[in-house]
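Reopening this one. Same input as before:
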Amino acid sequence: MSSTEFLSFVPIFSDLAEVTLQKIEKIGTRKIYSKNEVVLVEEEAGTALFVIVKGKVKVARASNDGREVILTILSESDFFGEMAILDGLTRSANVVAIEESELFLIQRNDFLNLLREYPEVAISLLQELTKRLRAADMKIKALSLKDAEGKVATVILQLADDIGKIKQGKVEIERLPLQQDLANMAGTSRETISRTLHTFAKKKLIEMEGSKLRILDYEKFKEIFN
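Same output, byte for byte:
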């Protein structure tokens, strides 16, 4: 897939003309990151915007007691690194590739020039940031108020929204993150994740097949745990 074709699927660039996408292609660069390779480090200077061409990354922070807290998992067509680009401050989280990933990098000055030249990109960026803020607010509320099952369900719903695909009326999450990563997202233990997934399967709410997870009735699942 060419950078031009790929960029048309990125939310902040999807409304741009082909000729504009070609300009963006020329100012950006591609880089391959191996599994578990660190992409960004919290508190370092922000010099580029990253767009995922293929693969997955986790965005995480370290808690006061040294535990990893995963904020989100991003996949193809998602972008990250925009906060440090916009405010000029340091990175707010660590980003690590959880599988081999190809990223498209746009340097800070080039991206700021894009925002000035194409206001529609700035508007799309604001809309995407607002969407992320709402999702973060909902997750904070859910993880602070719900029991263990509710916390795990919240993470499953987040993954379904972010990387799930509808197949034959079911929402399927391919290559489910490792149980320890799920635990770090839910603020619980790996044992709790394993036990809760087993409970959901017994209740016929989900199916597990290797690294795949299927939500058998997405609307019902959301109704139970929202």
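So the earlier flakiness isn't reproducible anymore. For the record, Residues 24 and 151 are 40 Å apart (CA to CA).
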